[in-house]
Amino acid sequence: MTTPRKSGRRPAPPPAPPPEAPPPAPAPANVPVARKAELLERFFYRPDEDAPDLGLDEASPLPEAAADEERTEYLSFWLSDEEHAVPIRLVREIQKPPPITEVPRAAAHVLGVITLRGEVIPVFDPRVRLGLARQEPTRDTRVMIVDLGEGPSALVVDRVGGVVRLAPSEIEPTPHGLGAAEGELLAGVGRSGGTRLLILLDLPALLRAAAGRTERP
Amino acid sequence: MRPPPPPEAAGARDELVQLCAFRVGGEEYAIDIMRIREIVPPQKVTPVPRAPEFIEGVVNLRGAIVPVVDLRKRFGLPATPPGRTTKLVIALVARRLVGLLVDRVAEVVRLPRSELKPAPSMPGKGPRIFVGVCGPPEKLRLLLDIKALLASTDPIPVDEVRTLARGDDRP
C-alpha cells in the first residue's frame, strides 16, 4: 500500500499522484492511471477514513469500534447442525468442493486430495474426528482451506456461517463430559450475543490428529 | 514520457489482502475483509423517516443501531423477498457500522494486492462505487467502495460498469 492517506478528509483528491506511480501517460480513458490507483485505495478499510454522514442520529458509533478491545475474529461453519468456528486468520479460502481424489488405505477422516490452482491439498472430514454424524453433500457444502504455516489443508463443512468477533470474556472452556478424544480437539465454546453458541475448534490439534493417527473407528 | 511500469513492479511490496465476496443479483462483488464485523441472517428492519433513500432503515444488533442498505435495491434490481442465503453483512465504515443486504455470501479469498486491478473509466458522473476488479474474466468481481455507495443517491449503472470491467480487463 502507498503512503498513509492523511488527506482523507478533503473532498478533492490530492493533486500529486502517489510516489511510486509514474506521471500518467495520456491514456485513452479520461481518468489518469494515478487517479485510478487512488480510487482503488479507497477499497481498503482505514479507521480514519472519511465517511458520509448519513444524518441518522441513532446510528451511533459502536463503542468498541473506537477502542478496539481484544476481539478475535472467527469464521463460523456448520458441522452436523452444530455451529463451529475457527480463527479467521487461519482460513485461507473457502471453495465449493472440487472433485476429491481418493487416497487408498487412508484413515476414515481423510477423504483424499484436491487440486486447487495447481496445488495439491489433503482433504479431511472433521466430523469423523469429532464423532459427529456424517452428512450427505448438499448445495451448501464447502471446503475450507486452512493454513497453520505448514501448508494448506482442506476441511469439508456442511455450510459456512459467517464472521463472528469474540472477546475473551465471551469464550468459555470446553465443558466436561465430552469423550477424551473429542475434548482435546476443542478450544472452548464461544457465546456470541449471549445466545449463539459456537464450538471453537482447536485447529492445530485437529490437524495433528488427522496427520498422525490412522486407526479406524 | 515513461512507459507505464510492468505489473511485476508492485511485487516488491505485494502483500496479501483478504476479501469477502458476495452476490447481488447475478453479479459478484467484494469488500475488504477488514471491514467486516459480522455476517448475520437478515433481520426485521425498522424504517427511519429522515434517512437517505437508500437506507432501508435500521436494525438492532445487540444494542447497536445499524443502518441497512439493500444492495439489490441500490443497484436498481427488482426486489425479492429474502431467501435462504440472504445475509446481512455488517461492515465498518470509518468506525461506524452499516449493514449490507446481499443475496449470498460467496467466499473469503486471500490474494496478492497486485491482483486487484483499478476500475475502468466510467462515463458520466455517477458515484464511483466500483474502484477495481479482481479475478479471471469468467469470475470477475467488482471491488466496492462502500463510502462512495453511501455518499450519493444517484442510481448506479451496474450493467454499464460490468460491461466496461470485462472489456477493459487488460493486465
- Give the overall shape of chain A: globular
Average pLDDT for all residues of chain A: 76
Largest sheet of chain B: 6 strands, mixed
What integer value in Å does the Rg of chain A equal? 23 Å
Instruction: Say how many strands of chain B there are.
Output: 11
Overall description:
The complex is a heterodimer of chains A (217) and B (171). With 217 residues, chain A is of the alpha+beta class. Helix content of chain A is 14%, strand content 31%. Chain A is built from five helices and eleven strands. Chain B starts with 15 loop residues before the first strand and ends with a helix. Chain B is mainly beta. The longest helix of chain B has 10 residues, at 158-167. The interface between A and B is large, with 51 and 61 residues.
Topology:
The complex is a heterodimer of chains A (about 220) and B (about 170).
Chain A: H1 33-41, H2 63-66, E1 72-79, E2 82-87, E3 91-95, E4 110-116, E5 119-124, H3 126-129, E6 142-147, E7 152-157, E8 159-166, E9 171-172, H4 180-183, E10 186-192, E11 196-201, H5 203-212
Parallel strand pairs in A: 2-11, 5-7
Antiparallel strand pairs in A: 1-2, 1-8, 3-6, 4-5, 6-7, 9-10, 10-11
Chain B: E1 16-24, E2 27-32, E3 36-40, E4 55-61, E5 64-70, H1 71-74, E6 87-93, E7 96-102, E8 104-112, E9 116-118, E10 130-134, E11 141-144, H2 146-151, H3 158-167
Parallel strand pairs in B: 2-11, 5-7
Antiparallel strand pairs in B: 1-2, 1-8, 3-6, 4-5, 6-7, 9-10, 10-11
